[in-house]
Amino acid sequence: MLRCMENTNKMRRAFGYVRVSSAGQGAEERDGIPRQKAAIRKHAAANNIRIVQWFEDTVSGKKELENRPALQELMTALHGNGTKLVLIEKLDRLARDLMIQESVIADFRRNGFELISVTEPDMCSDDPTRKLLRQMLGAFAEYECTMISLKLKGARLRAAAKRGASYVEGRVPFGYRVVKHDGIPVRVPEPTEQSTIARMKQLRAAGLSLARIADKLTAEGRRARVGAKWYEKQVARVLSRDVIAS
């Protein structure tokens, strides 16, 4: 059951999770990892909690779960070594995207893990008012992140227009990479990833489920874009995008 901190005299073990959006931000005081860890340590000391391991992501809070390596490692550790408590500074460090935020919280609840946001007391409870407030804060954080992304995109497009270059916008799909041709970014096929896509199609044509395809690709040593393990959702995305493209 996902719940807030309970009073106890027994020293409790916990994991600490921190996240910044870029490597440079990690050392900054305002939003950086040192500040987040300081807030978590302060709460832990006041509540008889010992942080036994830290998990650090340097990735946008809008990234989906399979693209959050430290968060994946954290979930694996929660299932494996007996520690069931996680401390974060605040919920937008867990995720800015509201759907990702709620998905993680729901997964914690299903598995009997505890999640404590040290600067947002009782935000993890099931009280309807608290849940509404948590979702509102998540929505505000998501809106802020979207507006920042739009401003940055506009700046990049203006810079590209001044250079007279064609701008490759967005994330490069699996199966492709970007190279510069006469100084202009061009998207070209990536042979190893194209081979993996072909293998996906072959397994799908043979009647395998998406989950079985993911397991098969992992067993064959075919790496995903992030991490060594494939997930059903990743396979579905790659196959659907390839069908649309063709």
Q: Element order, helices and strands?
A: EHEHEHHEHEEHHH
CATH-defined topology of the largest domain: Rossmann fold
Q: Helical element count?
A: 8
Average the pLDDT over all residues and give the rounded result.
Answer: 78
Strand-pairing-aware structural class:
alpha/beta
Q: So what's the overall shape? A: globular
| Helix-residue proportion | 40-55%
Largest sheet: 4 strands, parallel
Residue windows where pLDDT falls under 50 for at least 5 positions: 1-7, 25-29
CATH class identity of the largest domain: Alpha Beta
User: What's the structural domain tally?
Assistant: 2
Fraction of residues in β-strands = 15-25%
**What is the name of the CATH architecture of the largest domain?**
3-Layer(aba) Sandwich
| Rg from alpha-carbon coordinates | 21 Å
Strand order of the largest sheet: 2-1-3-4
CATH superfamily of the largest domain: Resolvase, N-terminal catalytic domain
Instruction: Say how many strands there are.
Output: 6
Distance from N terminus to C terminus (CA atoms, Å) equals 46 Å
Which features does this protein show?
6 strands, two-stranded antiparallel ribbon, 8 helices, disordered N terminus, alpha/beta, four-stranded parallel beta sheet, 246 residues, Rossmann fold
What's a quick, concise take on this entry?
This protein is of the alpha/beta class and 246 residues long.
Description:
The chain is an alpha/beta fold. The chain has 2 domains: 12-129, Resolvase, N-terminal catalytic domain (Rossmann fold); 176-245, no CATH class. Helices cover 48% and strands 16% of the residues. It has 8 helices and 6 strands, in the order βαβαβααβαββααα. The chain has helices at 33-46, 69-80, 91-94, 98-111, 128-163, 191-205, 210-219, 232-245, and strands at residues 12-20, 49-58, 85-88, 114-117, 176-181, 184-189. Strands 2-1-3-4 form a 4-stranded parallel β-sheet, with helices on both faces. Helix 7 (210-219) packs across helix 8 (232-245). The chain is globular and about 60 Å long. Mean pLDDT is 78; it is low at 1-7 and 25-29.
